[in-house]
Structure formats: C-alpha cells, structure tokens
Write a structure and sequence with these properties.
Length: about 250
C-alpha cells in the first residue's frame, strides 16, 4: 500500500477539529454533513444550471426565429418570451430534485461513491433522529470523508475492506432504519433499561468510534490487523441496533 501517513495524519487532524467544533457549538442543521455529499449536491446543481441555460437559450432562439418570420414579434411577443423564460427558469430550478439513495444502493460503486451516497442518505434520516443522535450523524460525515480517502488507497477486494464497506453501507443504515420503525410516541419509553432514543444514540456513538478506529488502522497501514466483524455483528445482534427493533 502507498505511504499515505502524512496525508492521513492531516485528514485525521481535520476530522478531530471538526468533531470538536461540532460538539462545542451544539446541534445545528448544516447543508451537508460531509464533502462527498456536498460534491453530489454540487454536481446536481450544475446539471440544473446547464438545463436552465439551454432552456433560456432555446426560448430566445425561438423568439428570434419567430421575429424574422413575422417581421418582429411586437410587445406581446416580447412579454410572452419573458414569461416563457421565467417559466423555464422556475421549472428547471425546481426539478428534478436530487435523488436520495436507497439503502440497497449505498454499498455500491467505489469508496468515494459509497461515502457520498451514505452521507446523503444520512442527511435525509437526520431530522427523524433525537438531537444527540443527530449530532453524531453530523460527526459521521467528517469521519466518512476520512475513511473514504483511506479506502481509496487499498485493494478493494481485500476481505477487511469489504467488511468495512459492509459496516458503513449496510449495518449503519440498518441501525437507523430499525429505529425509524419504532412508532414516534414509543421512542422515549424505556424498555430493558433504555429507550429507543437512547439506544440509537449509543449505537451510533459506537459506530462512530469504530469508524475512527478503522481509519486510524488504515492510516497506519495495519490492513491485516482490521478485525471489525465481531464488533459490528454485536451492533446488529447485541447491545446496539438490535435493541431498536424491539
């Protein structure tokens, strides 16, 4: 694996600073929880802008052609052209809306695509989570950016990498889906010592710590030392997400 220690240290340092800022400033809604989700939104916005430019250009060309044919379009024609431009801008800036990835799509593509989809999916789940869990989701965006950069430097076919991708692209969203299946009026009720709100917060916190640990191991080149299966299976069947399904 290439020597990426210096870059990795910078990534982890930035992630730690961002996590500290988030926790110090309290919960607040942000446009994007990570760079990759922001990049997906930017590409979607640029696509919209291109369609707006093409639509406005088509209206102007059509008006010019009509003017040449009928020797001028007159005041009514000018007003209709302006109205058509306004409608085109309104339609193509409102639609199409960005597509929220489905759970089955998260763990697909390369590492960067997986991270971007997962971040975007998490953003849309965040409003349904209790505030402490929502703060952790904000932190996860920074951590996923760092993890994605690390995953890009190693063989994607390595069993440990596949397990990490499964943790992020499958078991993390599964935990949140399990929580969302609990009726809203029951999420604050304690069962077996903890409420679903507390369980999802604890489970996401453990996932966050696991991602941080995995990223550090990848940064140290300890690919063969990764042993996440026994830990994330506990999230699914043990004290983490599995409780949310009760």
């Amino acid at each position: 694996m290439p020597d990426t220690t210096h870059e990795s240290d910078a990534i982890l340092s930035g992630a730690r600073r961002s996590l500290a800022d988030n926790r110090a400033g309290g919960y607040h809604r942000r446009a994007s929880i990570g760079r990759e989700a922001a990049a997906l939104k930017t590409r979607h916005l640029m696509g919209k802008l291109k369609r707006v430019v093409l639509a406005v250009g088509a209206v102007v060309v059509a008006a010019a052609v009509a003017g040449m044919i009928v020797d001028g379009i007159g005041f009514v024609g000018v007003m209709l052209t302006l109205l058509a431009i306004v409608v085109a801008i309104g339609v193509f800036t409102a639609f199409p809306k960005i597509k929220v990835p489905q759970r089955a799509e998260l763990n697909t593509g390369d590492a960067r695509q997986m991270v971007g989809r997962t971040e975007l999916w998490l953003e849309h789940q965040r409003p349904a989570l209790p505030p402490p869990a929502a703060r952790i989701v904000d932190d996860l965006g920074v951590q996923l950016d760092a993890l994605g950069l690390q995953l890009e430097t190693v063989d994607q076919a390595h069993p440990a990498v596949r397990e990490v991708r499964q943790l992020v692209g499958e078991h993390l969203p599964e935990m949140i889906d399990s929580y969302r299946k609990v009726p809203a009026h029951l999420r604050g009720e304690r069962r077996a010592g903890a409420s679903p709100d507390e369980q999802i917060t604890e489970g996401l916190g453990r996932i966050s710590r696991e991602i941080d640990s995995v990223t550090r191991q990848l940064a140290d080149g300890a690919l063969d030392d990764l042993a996440v299966r026994h830990r994330y299976l506990d999230y699914r069947y043990g004290e983490g997400a599995g409780k949310d399904e009760t």
